[in-house]
Amino acid sequence: MKLYDLLADVAFTPLNDLNPEITDVIYDSRKVQSGAAFVCLKGYAADGHRFAPSAVEKGAAALVISDDLDFEVPDHVAVIKTDDTRLALALMSRVYFGYPERELKTVAITGTKGKTTTAAMIAEIFAQAGIAAGTIGTLGIVYGGNTYKTDNTTPESYEIQKAMRDMADAGCGAMVIEASSIGLKHSRLAGVTFDVGVFTNFSDDHIGGVEHKDMDEYRYCKSLLFRQCKNAAANCDDANYTAITADFKGEVLTFGFSENARLRAKNDRLLSENGFIGVRFETEGLKALTPDVGVPGRFNVYNALAAISAVSFFGISDEAILRGLKAARVKGRVEPVPVPGNYSLLIDYAHNALSMENVLTTLRQYHPHRLITLFGAGGNRPKVRRFEMGETSGRLSDLSVITEDNSRFEDVMDIIEDIKVGLHKTDGKYVVVPQRKEAIRYCMLHAEEGDIIVLAGKGHEDYQEIKGVKYHMDERELIAEIIEEEHLQ
Hints:
Blueprint: H1 3-6, E1 13-14, E2 24-26, E3 36-39, H2 52-57, E4 62-65, E5 78-81, H3 85-96, E6 105-110, H4 115-128, E7 133-137, E8 140-143, E9 146-148, H5 157-169, E10 174-178, H6 181-185, E11 194-199, H7 215-223, E12 229-235, H8 241-244, E13 253-256, E14 263-273, E15 276-285, E16 292-293, H9 300-312, H10 318-327, E17 335-336, E18 344-348, H11 353-364, E19 371-375, H12 383-396, E20 399-402, H13 412-423, E21 429-432, H14 436-445, E22 452-456, E23 463-466, E24 469-472, H15 475-485
Parallel strand pairs: 2-3, 3-4, 4-5, 6-10, 6-11, 7-10, 11-12, 12-13, 13-14, 18-22, 19-20, 19-22, 20-21
Antiparallel strand pairs: 1-5, 7-8, 8-9, 14-15, 15-16, 17-18, 23-24
């Protein structure tokens, strides 16, 4: 593709009259190959303009810059100047991958909390309606049963465009993305017109350092999403929704418990039966439904309302919505694993005291026969974290099962002794089973009817790090092995 064709949507000034054939659009100089256009991004720690000479040495056919360069560019290299190279990267990537969003139903979700769960719900509803959907967010790029890890909740624009192209080529009909405030601030979603934009909620987060200078900037960055959406849905129980959707050109579909919401929830209650843990509620207004949501916690009513609102713009059937909400799971987030017996087994990523407190407090609301928490703590990390986790589990669990979790270069028994310091501040019962598979086996073999067992700390991770080596370990596989080995039915 010719350089100027790639720049079709970019405002730019050419610094020479070259229009070379471009083989790829690259922003990491280490990945430059012959014929690439190298886009110089300015980041917190590094400025891509400094790496332009290296890009040229590796065969870059064009440089896209916003600042003057401090070296003499060879005559055969095109140089393009633009005000915002991040915006240019997004718009060039969109052209390079053939405007892939035009081949997909697209939903973007912004908000402080709930993005990952809402995205999973929407994707599952699409799946139940016969539409394969991919997601981009905290868990990575997920489609076709595969997960591709990313560095950020909202990846760089090139990765987003490539992912959408790959999804479309793989037969997906929809894409759901978590639109973080940082991703919006840095134009990673620029150029895309989403079919639906969703606002979940807004609270104090990501303030200070290299993120947002204050709450006003944080709120403003989230609002940017609604300048590029055909339709919008928002939680009207959050007072910030009007400010965040202010730039949307149309009527916002509101959801919540408020009488003013177009999609209203009522009569929400917790569900715990036959190993299923979730929440049931009713809706009125836009739709009259009684969904069962397979993710624990009353706050997931809001996530379910967001998902229902989003898919309503695509004419998805009520039956697909109900099936999707019941089946939706977020890998590693209070994720239920089917087991023989009338107890519940959940996998969760909680790996510090705060996240553990949130999960266990939520599960306590279900009044389990016993709440059992299996966990360890990471090696080569502050000891205070271990003390706090031990104290939290001792206070909120009926039984703590202490085991390993990425011990790294520390001895697992030393880590366990630190956890016990926190446990001993409570009267909580505990057992020590150092090897994680055996700790899971202990929980399963000693489970009683009505128990909720939480395997905390690993979540979506599929490895165990010991002495600098990452060994494959997926708790779902361990559970299946134990069921087979113990002939559990």
